[in-house]
Records
---
Amino acid sequence: MGAVFTEFPWGVILILLPVTGGMLCFLWPQIAKITGLFIVFAVALLVVGLAWQIFDNGVYRHAVGGWGAPLGVDLYADGLSLLMLAITALVGIGISVYSATYFKHEQAVLFWPLWLFLLAALNALFLSADIFNIYVTFELMGLAAVALVALAGSREALGAAMRYLLAALLGSLAYLLGVALLYHGFGTVDIALLAERAEPSPIIWAALGLMGAGLLLKTALFPLHFWLPPAHASAPTPVSALLSALVVKASFYILLRLWLEIFGPLVGGAGVEQLLGLLGAAAILWGSVQALRQTRLKLLIAYSTVAQVGYLFLAFPLVAATGVSAWSAVTYLVLSHALAKAAMFMAAGNLLCFGGHDRIADLDRVVQRLPLTAGAFALAGVSIMGLPPSGGFIGKWLLLEAALMQGRWDLVVVMILGGLLAAGYIFKVLGYAFTQADVSHESKAVPASMEWAALLLAVAAILLGFLAVPVLSLVSIGDPFGIGEVRP
Amino acid sequence: MTLLTWVFDSLLGLSLLWLAWRALACPDLFKAIVLFVAFGLLMALAWVRLAAPDVALAEAAIGAGLTGALLMAALAKLHPTEAHDDFTVPPEKNVTKVWSWQWLPAVAILLVTTGLGYVVLSLPPYAAGLSTEVAANLAISGASNPVTAVLLNFRGYDTLLEIVVLLLALLGVWSLNSASLDRKAAPGIVLDTLARLLTPIFILVAAYLLWVGAHAPGGAFQAGAVLGAAGVLLLLAGWRPRAGLMALPLRLVLVTGPATFVIVAVLTLLMKGQMLEYPPTQAGVLILILETAATVSIGVTLAALFLGGDPRKNNRNKNQT
């Protein structure tokens, strides 16, 4: 029994199953919803299986085709990949349950195959150990994400999708150019082998510049965030949740991996970390101020994503002196933001469905009329603001601690300001949710599953605050942050 | 390098730059597309000069041929009523303001180009890459053309995902638009006859490219592109498939490629323990099966992309009204 669990190729099935599901949904649209829900729950079970395997055997490695790197492509999963797969599965379930009632008719027929292919792309990306294979998963992810944004069908959505497509393609091309340079220079595209073979050279700098710029564009770090607010705000609600919670994190995950494995040890201390930290700080301030200024709820949440992405980059300058605690902070921020932001977008979608609009000033006592949704928004807001007890609190606290230890008072001030601004825009929404609007509007009933999906994800973001010890011990499997070695 | 090849290469490089610039700067979109197609053809020549005939074939078939056709189809949808030569980019209202900002990307591109140029010059002129490993394992890969061996065996997993990307692209187009299946009158006897004559030849060429891919330049992508070109030609000549074939049958053909890949992946996983690990004795047959399925799917997907919308959706709407 145990052997079946520890030897079963969970990781491979994690990729093949959603691909198969996507094709089934494409072939038989009548059963798309059932197939989609089944596949998403099955993927969650597979992640549990993979977790079991990694607990027992250590890191997961699968040489596709039996060749092994450098000739073939390797799949690889350590604690960090596992956590990303787990959060994808968890948020995926919430989004699927929400979408099952959100999308109707023609939209549902198109949504399910696109979402399952996107899920396959995310799983493949988190499992990849090969920089060219990662490029292919980016293509898969980008096309699916763009098509999902365009699903809204509105004029703004189509414009935003086009802009998103161009930004994603530009990012992919820059990344691919870096891959070509690294392959030419070191004769492999496997991350572990590149880490062994790479040495400081102009190639490394050029590859870092190209891949870094491409990935920052995809991650929407200030000032490369221009495509994000329109795309995330005009997409259908479950898609907004997907993009903000998972897709943006995927390119950040690759950036983190490449930095930890290849670039960090080579160019660490040369100012790249400081630049990333500076951009992160600018993103926090700019995104938060913009969020505060918005009058539409979904745009406010989208700008909040711009700000929260900034926090992830504050860790780069802090790692040099404080080591692992800054990376733990990043892990925590990624996970809690995924849960909280998905919940927040879903809550906004419920309000949009309820009142037919998302004008913040006309929310009109939704707390009484839609208590579950208002509760979901408030709980997600707690995590976004970084108040205890929540996943966001742990992440921001660890980051703050790292900044204090290193005496980076500038970053401390930015983090506190970011928290205050976040409180500002969350309470702005909640304030309107409690008060009566000047004009009352017609309202429509919101399906219960949509309310519960939002609430449960928000509760998960809070519960994450109590799971610091297991989560942080999980992420250290396979030593993704290289604690053993001393960084310059 | 002889003087002649040196002159040829310089002319080729300069023409590429000039065509790229003209295609970007041309306000007439029709002209721009023609320039883009010419650029693609010269680019294919450049790949030949770089001793990469597989890339050259793909560039000529997909980069120049089908992309050109897709761009033309898109242009026709932009302004269906106007003749092509009337369609130009509308003049900017505040040209001066736009112009004053154009130096910024220009400077950025110049910087990137300079940096890349420096790096490329600092590279070792020849890098073996993985060619020795590929050559060492070629005998058991099931293909004697190293490109095919890499695409279908060593890195078959990438190709599996790429084929799904192609299906996804079509799905994206279908989510935006529906296509009319009304049979169009043939635009003229010349095109009609040409389509009738050329289609069988295209199919034959596609089959040849598919077969020859095992040991010479060619393979599923090139063969699929030629097959797609045959489809485009038929669509141009006014041919439309029967509406009854547009629901499940078309979709089954479209997923043939990715589905075959997934099935082979699962079977190899069950039998050998690793995804897409072929038994060396059966590798050749497996690669041929995968390539054939991929060729059919790629060809039909490209033709469907040219059709520019979901043909089923249109049907359904018609039934409702």
---
Amino acid sequence: MTFLRKTLASGIALAATAMMATGAQAEISDNAVRIGYLADMSGTYRDLAGPGGLVALEMAVEDFGGSVNGAPIEVFSADDRNSADVGANTVRGWFDQENVDLVAGLVASSVTIAVTNVLKEHNGLGIVSGSAASSITNEHCTPNHIHWVYDTYPLANGTAKAVVEQGGDSWFLLTADYAFGHALEGDVIKVVEDSGGTIVGKIRHPFPTNDFSSYILQAQGSGAKIIGLANAGADTVNAITTASQFGVVQGGQQLAGLLIFLSDVHAMGLEATQGLLLTTGWYWDMDDEAREWAERYYERTERMPTMVQAGIYSSTMHYLKAMEEVGTDDPMTVKTRMAGTPVNDFFSRNGRIREDGRMVHDMYLAQVKSPDESTGEWDVYEILATIPAEEAYRPLSESQCDLVQN
Amino acid sequence: MTMIFGVPLAVFMGQLMLGLINGAFYALLSLGLAVIFGLLKIVNFAHGAQYMLGAFAALLALEYLGINYWVALLLVPLVVGGLGMVIERYLLRRIAHLDHLYGLLLTFGLALIAEGSLVNLFGVSGSSYPTPAALQGGINLGFMFLPTYRAWVLVAALVVCLGTWFIIERTRLGAYLRAGTENSALMQAFGVNVPLLVTLTYGFGVALAAFAGVLAAPLYPVSPTMGSSLLIVVFAVVVIGGMGSILGAIITGLSMGLIEGLTKVYYPEAANTVIFLVMILVLMLRPAGLFGKET
């Protein structure tokens, strides 16, 4: 009898301890939510995310009220200088010294892939907003990150398909020679060939490249109808400017920019870019909700937000709301809640987070306006079509991600 | 169609032409570096930033003061060169008696400050500078469509390079300069104002960089980072040519442009590295550079 009572008593004590332990876990560790923003703050990709992305992140924190269930939200940032080593070491430091809860930003795909490995080692959570490589949620998927704004699959799927359908069936590709460029190149080749077009040649140019004249000349000599630019940022800008100097369009060829940001079009001007087809995840002037947020952002930065900057706000908000609901900063608990909640806000329509970490949402096929059509400095796109979320991204049936049961 | 190593002749000729144009740029920039190093023994790491300042000054002058391209081509090198003279007079001179490393660090620091401040003010996307009306359009050479502006760059860069070489190697002023750096005490005893010569020389080297910047403005987006990527390549060119050799810098600049141009056709992935491979080879076989004097 004594024995039984003792066993029972210790059993109850054990259960109580266990409950207390869960009780402790269900709070926010060290009573603060720490968000680290990692991005290219000074190089090629500065203007598409960079300091503007940090402003968007801070706007989200402010709009949320600055704390989650009483725990204050702290935001800090670092410049990855587009180096995978710098990025990975910074995030490692954030885990070791800052107790970081969420890594946000994440722009150059090579940096992101290195950082997601660190996230996995430390069982942390990251939201990728700036990167393009679709491999981030394909062969490089981890349970520890979510890919928010766009990736190379819908870019290729949207733009390349539309161009081939308009008769641009022979392509010459200029590819940035690193993870993102390779991913985009692969996706474009597949879409072009599936839609009945051919690839007549391709060049992988070093990243970054200043002088594109040689590559443009080779593309001109190839006789392809379309010169596809599987690069981004300053590389794309350089390529397009050089093409206009060498009279590519007058010679009967057309350019297809596969990854064009609002900041690129703004920098090049409408004269050089008019008529360009592109796919975007969001555009500031697409509807009232988008405009309202964009105006608030503009007041702080005097620039209109890119889709990446808008996505940073949207993803941070979704994260903070999920954390408030589950009452813990345990990464997997928060992620599960995020994945269980549809994403519908000024940025994302019909959005949901899939098991491979991809946030799929509606994408848009847009065309750059001519200088006559534009009514203002930032009035640059006309949205031609909406690509529904479920069609835009790589279907899970083709996924190579370990997290997906095929 | 005639083929050269699997590339049509026309494409091959076009690539040679572009290589030559890029080479002229390299020559112009490495010339400024070579003048500064050869005569003053300063490793001018601010050269890329000074090139960028040239392009920026031209852009801002056009936007805010309405100064056109041709005036900017003369005015901007004077202004940026003047800034260089101030840097020499008040900063570099104070450390002239120390190891070269100090000059390198100082100029590198100045470059970072210039670049960083402009990134903060203007971002990195840059803006475009319109091609001057007289140089718009292009010439059909039969094997390629050559934009008129690029032809002009080739001519302008070559004329300035050869002019500089002539002044330094063939005139009395150049002789003073060379003698002043060889033995400044003796030259001062002859009544030559050597410190002034040194200031002017640095200013001239900087003005060359700014001139190259104005030439580049209509070709590439004008952005604060446009100089830093070029600087390393230009340094490699100077090392290959032989630190301080004026003619070496010009010839090496042109030939590296050609080699890089051909790499872009046959193995584009290596286009950014090929010049450094040549540099390693040259350093192994002729440590003083192709045109450098053994010390």
